[in-house]
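Hey, quick one: can you model this chain's 3D structure?
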Amino acid sequence: MSSPIAGPFSLNILGNGGAAEDHDRLELGKLAADGYKWRLVIAYDGTRFSGWQYQQSPPTIQCTIEKALMTATKLERKHLHLVGASRTDAGVHAFGQVAHFITPFNYDSLESIHAALNGLLPSDIRVREISAAAPEFHARFSAKSKIYHYKIYNDPVMDPFHRHFAYHSIYKLNTDAMKEAAKYLVGKHDFSAFVNAQRNDRILDPLKNIFRFDIIEMGSLLQIEVEGSGFLYRQVRNMVALLVQIGREAIPPDIVPKILESRDRKELAKYTVSAPPHGLSLVAVKYNEDHLRLPTGCPATSLGRHHAVSKCKLPFY
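Sure thing. Here's the predicted structure for all 317 residues.
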């Protein structure tokens, strides 16, 4: 199963995020110095969950994964220190959410705990990958960019196979106008006009860098792909909602810079409300290669394992 190995790896955890954030990093560094850090890549259908962030009821992704980890590792929640890269909202999905947790012991192999976690988790959450992580790796603070996709089914009749994962627009959308508008959002901007108020007093930097904003047409399905250095609360859904209004030709594409320059959420509210959550998915979180380098002497990364049979068995039994 597991075997203790002395002396986890050197730390380099201070960043440029301010005193409070550096304090968080230092505390996490102390924890990693006393244990072993593990990186998870997680996929989930967020339909029945109240987002990522921990709460007992209604259930959240973090709470559900922590319960599985507690059973698999025999550790208490307070010792696992599970942290996700993105605090996805209720109803939002993920294919590439990244998280880390800490144990006081090392593993000889990760395949068994990988299989155990997926055996304990409900079928709408899956750990796709588990690997060792260096102490300085942090699922949220180390991220250099995140990629979100928002799907819109643009047809008079909704495809029932897409109903949980795509927003249905019965209005024929002008994708050329949407693409023109999206260009205004690329680059470094103050996105204060696109952030919803949060239920805490934490002040976030409204300056965000959007690296790309693509609109892919796949028949009746539109896939909006956004990659950025980070995103404010409901920023992606608010940007998509504005593009939908532009696609309906209710407002022109050049309204975007006017709204950006206002830095006022009330200005955006004149034209649209947030797009529904079920069309949104966190597809990937990107890190510098140094943060993904496996520590010396760690077990191999687990991507899951196939089962083999020595004689014919009936399928599904």
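One thing worth noting: The radius of gyration is 21 Å.
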